Amino acid sequence: MTVSRGGDAAMELDQFDRWLRDPDVVMAPERLGAARPTRHSFAASMLRTAVRDGWRIEIERWVVDGDGAGEAVYRIRTPTDVLRFVVFSTVIAETERIDRVVAKSWDVTAALIDGDLDADRLHELRTEVPRQERGRADAATLIWTRGNRSSRFFEHVVAALAEGQQPDAALIGSSPYLVRSTAYYSNGRFGMATYPGLRRRPAVASPYRAHMLAAWLFREFSCDLVDHMARSRNSGAATLDPGWRRCLGIGNATGLGMVPYVINHPMILDRWVGIRETALAVARGTSAPRADRRWPELYAGLTHLIGWCEARAGRSCSPFQDTGSLAAELRCIRELVRRGPRGPHPFDLLWHEAEARMGVEAQELLASVLTDLDDSFDDELEARLHVEGEPHDPRVTDTVGHLRSQLARYSWTHDLAQRAGSEHWFWYYARDNEEPRRGIRGVDRGAEFEMPIDISRAVAAMDDALRDRHEHESVAAFLLRHPEHRAAVARVQNHANLRYAEVRDNLIAAGFLPLQLQRFQLAMYGAADFVPQSTDWVRVTLLNGAPSRKSLPTQARYEHELFPSLPQQNEE
Fold first, then answer.
1. DSSP-derived secondary structure for 211-248
2. Which of 9, 293, 449, 470 is paired with 183 by a 20 to 30 Å CA distance?
3. 563 Cβ contact list (under 8 Å, min separation 6)
4. What is the CA radius of gyration of the chain?
5. Which residues pair with 73 in a beta bridge?
6. What confidence score (pLDDT) does residue 430 get?
7. What span, in angstroms and rounded, lies between the C-alpha atoms of 83 and 77?
8. What does the longest C-alpha to C-alpha distance in the chain come to?
9. Residue pLDDT, tens place only, 105-136
10. Model confidence band, residue 102 (pLDDT cutoffs 50, 70, 90)
């Protein structure tokens, strides 16, 4: 495989198309819900870029008291941009520490900004950033974020360090974090830089790179904060050792609000799924000589992953598969790897054996390990993430016959629409909670404010309405008779040629499980640990296992942990 750039790279990637999985397989909800992070997840991509391009992060300002109240400024130097992460820290009452959008105060608020930071701008940020939804940003502000100290972990870590000890690994458990973030605002919100504005800043031009940078620096601030507070209590306090700084991440909890996003942005969904599937296709299409050289890395990756699963065995993962049984499946496939590579495309043969022997979740874990073996096309794949804009209007000059031909890609919608319970839920935007919610149709109030996210039923209804129309009739004439189908027509026309644009599920059906789409999106962000709290929301830890800002300059090449090890007592 030749490493190349630009159009040549695109042509080389195209040669692996025959190994791409079928959309009906990939876009099934249980398959999306089994997704795990890859080297192309947004957090890994950001950190890999930071190491490769030699980013340097320095504390430019630190005015924080012993209780952790004050402000800090982190300066990020990249080859193309100088950015700053400006943090405002306080201490709020425990009763105010809620993770909901409707919260009015937070322990920490912060902004990722471009440009100089003089006294006047700092004063403006100090005034506006803590206000969050009630504040106002400028066009050189890239991200606003906020979060709270962990009620379970934060004080324990400060107290342990003040006593000259490291945290208790048994208490911290498998979800190690000090603060929980609750939002990352961007793309013109409150007056900040729009998406085109982000694209003009090369360091953060890739989708979600600014968000991941802000999340990582939020993690860094939390580690610096507990060190500072411990020293304030005892000048002889310990500092977090490098192992703990690497293990600690940032907590997050996500609910129904994430689900409509991928439904309402089919082009983005197609790109997200597409880079994952292309990376797997490249792995499966790898020729024997190259695969043979990577075989020991595959064995080591599976061994690490088995240990990762075993360390979490016994923890409730319902409704997902428990990690103990996942470890057992992975041991079986590792035994096949131990026997050595076979055939002209060894990874492809292994993949087929995995499909025959392993469940969906174990298969997707194997996919993460396989795609982590090859970095030849990182830049080319991640360049595909950019979406300039999604069309929403129908092409009214098309014919009904052409529209029917495009509907061939949507044959799956009829089965979903005809199943029992296909109209069980309705989705609406709750004014009081400022978030999407679900109600039971015919039982709960609010159905008159329903959000139109039932794509499968809308397309099936439009298809039915087309059946008595002549194939040479224009789409304009059809829509004059049936204006209620305008959105469905536009959806099919604009996205029928996209391989991975549509989830094969009905979001208002009785059996729809929101966790499936939530976990897919969180895997794209880079989260590996998922702790479901109900059918509707899940807790995660992000950026645990990521290098600290202090260790960044020491890395000649970014070696990321897709599945981070748990913290160990007395780890050095």
1. HHHHHHHHHHHHHHHHHHHHHHH-TT-----HHHHHH-
2. 449
3. 36, 37, 304, 305, 308, 368, 528, 545
4. 25
5. 61, 86
6. 84
7. 7
8. 84
9. 899 999 999 999 999 999 999 999 999 999 99
10. low
pLDDT digits (tens, 9 = 90+) for 313-336: 888 788 899 999 999 999 999 999
CA angle in degrees (0–180, nearest 5) for 531-534-538: 35
Task: Determine the distance from the C-alpha atom of residue 285 to the mean position of all C-alpha atoms in its chain, rounded to a whole number.
Answer: 26
164: left (phi over 0), alpha (psi -120 to 50) or beta: left
Distance CA 194, CA 486 (A): 29
Q: Can you tell me the distance from the alpha carbon of 209 to that of 354, in angstroms, rounded to the nearest whole number?
A: 33
Give the integer Cα–Cα distance in Å for 551 and 245: 10
pLDDT for 235-276, tens place per residue?
Answer: 999 999 999 999 999 998 888 888 999 999 999 999 999 999
**Core vs surface per residue 280-316: b (16+ CB within 10 A) or e:** bbbbbbbeeeebeebbeebeebbeebbebbbebeeee
Assess contact for 38 and 368: CB atoms under 8 A. Answer: yes
Laid out side by side, the sheet with 56-64 consists of 56-64, 70-77, 82-89, 108-114, 141-149, 177-185, 249-254, 538-542, 529-532
Pair 192, 133: CB distance under 8 Å? no
Quick one: pLDDT at residue 4? 35
> What letter does residue 342 receive in the DSSP assignment?
-
Banded pLDDT at 571 (limits 50, 70, 90): very low
- Give the position of tokens 């590996």: 528
Give the separation between CA 360 and CA 501, rounded to whole angstroms.
20
Can you read off the two tokens belonging to residue 221? 């601030």
Model pLDDT for residues 438-485, shown as the tens digit of each residue: 999 999 998 999 999 999 999 999 999 999 999 999 999 999 999 999
Which residue has 């890609």 as its token pair? Answer: 409
User: How far, in Å, are 149, 155, 178, 416 from residue 162 at the CA level?
Assistant: 18, 10, 16, 58
Any idea what DSSP says for residue 190? G
**Cα 256–Cα 461–Cα 509 angle in degrees, nearest 5:** 30
